[in-house]
Amino acid sequence: MKILVCISHVPDTTSKINFTDSDTKFDTNGVQFVINPNDEFGLTRAMWFKEKQGATVHVVNVGGPETEPTLRKALAIGADEAIRVNTAATDGFSVAKQLASIAKEGGYDLVIGGRESIDYNGGMVPGMLAKLIGANFVNTCIGLEVEGDKATVIREIDGGKETLKTSLPLVIGGQKGLVEESDLRIPNMRGIMQARTKPLNVKEPVASNAETNTVSFEKPAPKGAVKLVDTVDELVNLLHNEAKVI
Amino acid sequence: MILVYTESEEGKIKKIALEAVSYAKGIADQMGTSVTAVSINANDISELGKYGASKVLQVSNDKLNKFNGEAYADVIAQAAKTEDAKVIVVTSSANSKFLAPALAVNLEAGYVPNVTALPESTSPFKVKSNVFTNKAFATTEIKTDRKIIGLGKNSYGLKENETSATAEAFSPNLDAHDFDMEIISVDKATDKVTIADAEIVVSGGRGLKGPENWGMIEDLAKTLGAATACSKPVSDMGWRPHSEHVGQTGKPVASNLYIAIGISGAIQHLAGINASKVKVVINNDPEAPFFKAADYGIVGDAFEIVPKLTEKLKEFKAQNA
């Protein structure tokens, strides 16, 4: 089985979010970048397929050279090869189009993406990619087993979960549950050394057009101070009469 | 024409769908046009007119009883083409987020999810949405002829706009590829309010010391008709299921009221719940970061305060019933 894991290069979850260039660009100053958490759960699941079922695992990112350390980390975790599509990730559709070209060319059976990236929260790339390559698609995926060309997939739904049977080629939008938090791997020295010599192929982008363009950013207005109360009577009174939420 | 997909469950139109209709009517007014709703296997569509739909395309098809992303996206795409819709409004529910990307590819439409307000302008078409998990807003221009808006929950609200809606049967063409996926089983608690639908969410953190102490969280939630949730460490330690984890890497919360009990308020947690309207924190540590993000707070022992709060709310409910 050939697996492609789509890796988004995102600010660490603890990052302070600021903008520059008159609020038109994300300020990367002092920001630590990581593998998007939803993608990392998928990558770790892919490692399981590699170790138990002999799958080949490639990782891909659409972005400039500054995203390569994130791909090297994925290689250090255990992916066999990395691909970087050498273009800035502008909008979800243009990224999906680049990934579709890589997925078609590589003939992957399974493409694993994350439910959403934690920066722009678009949540659209895996679904668009699936549609572009004509593969089956399951979003908010919390469980995945593959046998031959059949897959059993568990999807989180509002208030529960649903088990589905489908066939490869398959694209999933994964999240925590695919593996547990405690299954996530910190690259060891051996992995890091090996990652240095694993292939990281840079591909030039295919022609695509952004359908959307973010023109500006703003931060939420600062919040007023918390109102501290001493008794539950006072709290219930405020929630009813002032906040009007009960 | 503005098309709105009105989600239903077990034949009943969901509240988020009515919010989406209200929003679609807002755009229609800006653009001088009308709203058509498309519903799949909904029994009673009378409410859609109340919020501004002037036409309802009703799909009735037993094969579509359970949500199916591929087929549902196909139905909406065909409705959009038949009606020549310029803007298609969906919600930010798990199902809308599942189908919208396929819909966008099918219609060659630019799609912006987590939208928080009516377009700032409709030509060029610019909308504001939540990004960086509620830590910022982006204003995005959609450049395609057709546009898809994913409305964030609880960001526009319900706005009544009595319109006389005409219902029309709509029979989409579905093909075999629409049914490449077979649902084997569904495991869903039917007696519990889901975090996605909840108006009020009661959430517990590590301060509760162990899973055996969740009874008081559940009692409080039950009294308020609320959903229960938890912080990331609590789900990582297995005290509560992952499905209850709210925050940046868990579920987003956009409820009217969010009550955090024994949660210190890590930046990732605050981001995930920040779209909630009113936030209450109960924590024995006055230095907990959550107090900076909350509207109301009580500094004190949750084990004392929560049962008292539940009792007080029961009294309050009895008086206001």
UniProtKB/TrEMBL annotation, chain A:
Keywords: Electron transport, Transport. Pfam families: ETF. One of its GO terms (molecular function) is electron transfer activity. Residues 23-212 form the Electron transfer flavoprotein alpha/beta-subunit N-terminal domain. InterPro entries: ETF_a/b_N, ETF_b, ETF_beta_N, Rossmann-like_a/b/a_fold. SUPFAM superfamilies: Adenine nucleotide alpha hydrolases-like. PANTHER family: ELECTRON TRANSFER FLAVOPROTEIN BETA-SUBUNIT, ELECTRON TRANSFER FLAVOPROTEIN SUBUNIT BETA. Belongs to the ETF beta-subunit/FixA family. This is Electron transfer flavoprotein subunit beta. It comes from Aequorivita soesokkakensis.
Automatic annotation (TrEMBL), chain B:
Gene3D superfamilies: HUPs, TPP-binding domain. FAD binds at residues 206, 262-269, 283. One of its GO terms (biological process) is fatty acid beta-oxidation using acyl-CoA dehydrogenase. It holds the Pfam family ETF_alpha. Binds 1 FAD per dimer. Its cofactor is FAD. It comes from the Bacteria. Residues 2-193 form the Electron transfer flavoprotein alpha/beta-subunit N-terminal domain. GO terms for molecular function: electron transfer activity; flavin adenine dinucleotide binding. InterPro entries: DHS-like_NAD/FAD-binding_dom, ETF_a/b_N, ETF_a/FixB, ETF_asu_C, Rossmann-like_a/b/a_fold. The keyword Electron transport applies. The keyword GTP-binding does not apply. Keywords: Electron transport, FAD, Flavoprotein, Transport. Belongs to the ETF alpha-subunit/FixB family. This is Electron transfer flavoprotein subunit alpha.
